[in-house]
Inverse folding.
């Protein structure tokens, strides 16, 4: 038994040989993938966790339950368009609804730093309350810890949530098919740029607000108009490119997207150009990509546009064909996306490999 | 495809050179635009675009990286630098790993942030790792002057600045790589103007066009080069007229030489180039981190098998390096050209690695 354990540990050591934790282990890119797949799954892997979905789906007494958790460490804690409280609720709601579930209950835990002003804490609590109420949800359990000054930065939040999935709904990357259209519910990179421009080390002002929003109503609306939605994914850390890459990897299909069709505000584009950032890799907090059967795509698009969080929705690309291993080569390249540039040329999109902005959510 | 791109590609085809020609894009930002927009897919196959030494992170020699790493190890200092420098591997470590181990290493977007930090934290010794060509040198010059006037005694620069025209002369003389034309950098030229490149046309007969950074700019600049080649002339033309003037920005240039004198400088891949670097004038020497924070002798080695040197000279394409995409990948770079957001290996890896296999 012990020998078996040792050999398992050795295997994990071999697969994950970084000596210290670096910021890029938490940016949603290649290093994060290595940490999760090679280290965490090495310890805890099982048939549900291995899927690495936004939410786990558990079959329980004939019901399908969605279950997810997320931690929030955003800096600054108040930013244009939201705060760490609203973010922590929306983030968990959005992870849950990618399964098509109705969210039913949330947990809420705080790690607070000694000296954190209660007035700021109250502002965050009230923002959480409003977001929870707006979505007909309840906080049903929670926890609070306080650490000494300097042992944490102001406030960290963890939330988790559960929801019930109607048995007729089955949204998974493995359901993605050749020809599926890919839709997004509006402009990309707004959360990342809003956070960036509210940090004091950046001496520029912008009017960009975080897109932080709960997307349960949007998901409900599209599931009402189409039975042929195959998969959803919350587009957060790592940005649109990283999330598409994950979906390509999880489904085994190549994805083609059109640069001209990707919605992005002019000001966001300008700031990205100026700072040398690629908006395709910048975080969002109120964006969902939808993989829909091509025949239903226009109907789904209409439903999205009618929702208040989907006015700028667009079809941005399509699923092409199963990719062959030989096309993608290296061990980390689980996924194959290419972008048709505005000039009509082709370029590849990869996972991001170093954090553009730490502590973004 | 929009109409201006269509026109430009038609113009490229009608001026297509009969024999293969090498056009070197000097600036890393040009390399990025070319890869990111897939411009190689739009130009005739007889035009070979090769990347030059215009990525400041890439041409910083390993010894400089090791030197600053040693300073962060030996001294209690706060280091400020631009983001790309963090992940450049030194012989044994990188600033990124040193930071994860607890050294105070900060990314800044402007050198003024470093000076500001020094002003607000008088007990802390602050070093700005000054890197870049003529574009960023005036900014470093300004903060050194300011620190001098304000008598700020806890601020230093670790200077790795380099000058572009001197490096181009070395490349023009190189027997191994035959450069038929230069696509000259836009931002550097906004400072120095077009005249410092004059010798390339008059002495070496090499056509030069100073180009902007949009894909349309680059295609138009290539058309301008082709026309010069067709007419068998060599001139220094400015395509990026909306920013670059013939005389550049004489005030900025004058300011640089108020603070610095020309000196020799070692470039990764190109070696020591006479007059291609800068050293602080004697009056400002107390800001020089190299002399103020002495370190023991540094043993540096360029990474084994890494072709960055040849890539920077345009002798090899990134694909031709045997480490490319195997052991040298953006998340585990061996050489600096794979790290920098302006590095040619990073550009080829990120944007041009797979498209040949894709059916559109």
């Amino acid at each position: 038994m012990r020998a078996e354990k040792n050999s398992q540990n050795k295997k994990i050591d071999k697969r994950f040989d970084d000596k210290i934790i670096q910021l890029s282990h938490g940016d949603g890119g290649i290093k994060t993938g290595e940490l999760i797949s090679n280290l965490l799954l090495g310890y805890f892997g099982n048939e549900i966790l291995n899927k690495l979905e936004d939410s786990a789906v558990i079959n329980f007494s004939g019901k399908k339950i969605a279950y997810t958790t997320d931690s929030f460490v955003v800096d600054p804690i108040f930013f244009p368009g939201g705060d760490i409280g609203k973010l922590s609720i929306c983030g968990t709601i959005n992870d849950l609804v990618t399964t098509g579930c109705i969210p039913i209950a949330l947990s809420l835990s705080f790690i607070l730093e000694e000296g954190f002003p209660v007035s700021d804490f109250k502002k965050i609590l009230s923002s959480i309350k409003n977001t929870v109420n707006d979505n007909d949800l309840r906080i049903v359990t929670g926890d609070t810890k306080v650490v000494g000054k300097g042992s944490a930065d102001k406030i960290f939040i963890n939330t988790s949530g559960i929801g019930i999935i109607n048995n007729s709904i089955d949204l998974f990357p493995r359901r993605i098919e050749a020809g599926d259209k890919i839709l997004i519910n509006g402009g990309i990179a707004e959360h990342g740029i809003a956070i960036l421009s509210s940090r004091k080390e950046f001496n520029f002002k912008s009017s960009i607000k975080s897109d932080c929003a709960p997307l349960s109503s949007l998901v409900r609306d599209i599931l009402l108009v189409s039975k042929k939605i195959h998969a959803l994914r919350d587009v957060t850390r790592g940005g649109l490119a990283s999330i598409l890459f994950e979906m390509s990897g999880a489904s085994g299909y190549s994805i083609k997207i059109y640069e001209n069709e990707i919605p992005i505000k002019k000001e966001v584009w300008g700031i990205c150009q100026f700072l040398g950032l690629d908006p395709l890799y910048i975080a969002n907090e109120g964006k969902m990509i939808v993989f829909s059967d091509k025949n239903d795509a226009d109907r789904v698009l209409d439903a999205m546009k009618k929702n208040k969080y989907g006015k700028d929705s667009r079809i941005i690309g399509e699923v092409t064909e199963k990719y062959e291993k030989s096309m993608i080569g290296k061990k980390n390249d689980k996924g194959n996306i290419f972008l048709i540039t505005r000039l009509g040329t082709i370029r590849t999109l990869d996972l991001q490999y170093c954090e553009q902005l730490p502590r973004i959510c | 495809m929009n109409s201006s791109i269509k026109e430009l590609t038609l113009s490229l085809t009608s001026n297509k050179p009969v024999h293969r020609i090498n056009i070197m894009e000097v600036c890393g930002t040009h390399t990025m635009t070319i890869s990111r927009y897939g411009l190689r897919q739009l130009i005739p196959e007889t035009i070979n675009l090769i990347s030059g030494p215009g990525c400041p992170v890439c041409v910083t020699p390993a010894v400089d990286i090791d030197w600053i790493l040693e300073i962060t190890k030996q001294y209690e200092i706060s280091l400020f630098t631009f983001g790309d420098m963090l992940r450049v591997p030194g012989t044994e470590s990188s600033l990124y790993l040193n930071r994860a181990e607890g050294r105070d290493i900060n990314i800044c977007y402007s050198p003024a942030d470093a000076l500001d930090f020094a002003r607000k934290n008088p007990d802390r010794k602050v070093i700005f790792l000054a890197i870049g060509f003529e574009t960023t040198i005036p900014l470093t010059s300004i903060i050194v002057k300011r620190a001098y006037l304000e008598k700020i005694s806890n601020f230093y620069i670790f200077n790795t600045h380099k000058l572009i025209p001197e490096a181009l002369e070395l490349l023009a003389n190189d027997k191994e790589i035959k450069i038929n034309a230069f696509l000259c950098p836009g931002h550097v030229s906004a400072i120095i103007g077009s005249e410092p490149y004059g010798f390339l046309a008059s002495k070496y007969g090499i056509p030069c066009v100073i180009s902007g950074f949009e894909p349309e700019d680059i295609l138009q600049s290539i058309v301008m080069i082709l026309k010069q080649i067709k007419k068998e002339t060599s001139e220094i033309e400015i395509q990026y007229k909306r920013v670059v003037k013939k005389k550049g920005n004489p005030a900025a240039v004058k300011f640089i030489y108020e603070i610095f004198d020309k000196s020799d400088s070692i470039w990764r891949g190109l070696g020591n180039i006479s007059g291609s670097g800068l050293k602080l004038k004697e009056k400002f020497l107390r800001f020089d981190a190299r002399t103020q924070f002495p370190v023991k002798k540094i043993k540096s080695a360029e990474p084994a098998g890494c072709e960055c040197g040849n890539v920077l000279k345009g002798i090899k394409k990134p694909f031709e390096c045997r480490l490319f995409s195997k052991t040298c990948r953006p998340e585990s770079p061996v050489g600096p050209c794979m790290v920098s957001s302006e590095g040619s290996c990073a550009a080829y890896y990120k944007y041009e690695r797979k498209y040949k296999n894709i059916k559109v």
Chain A has a mean pLDDT of 91. The CA atoms of residues 191 and 251 of chain A lie 27 Å apart. DSSP finds ten helices and 14 strands in chain A.
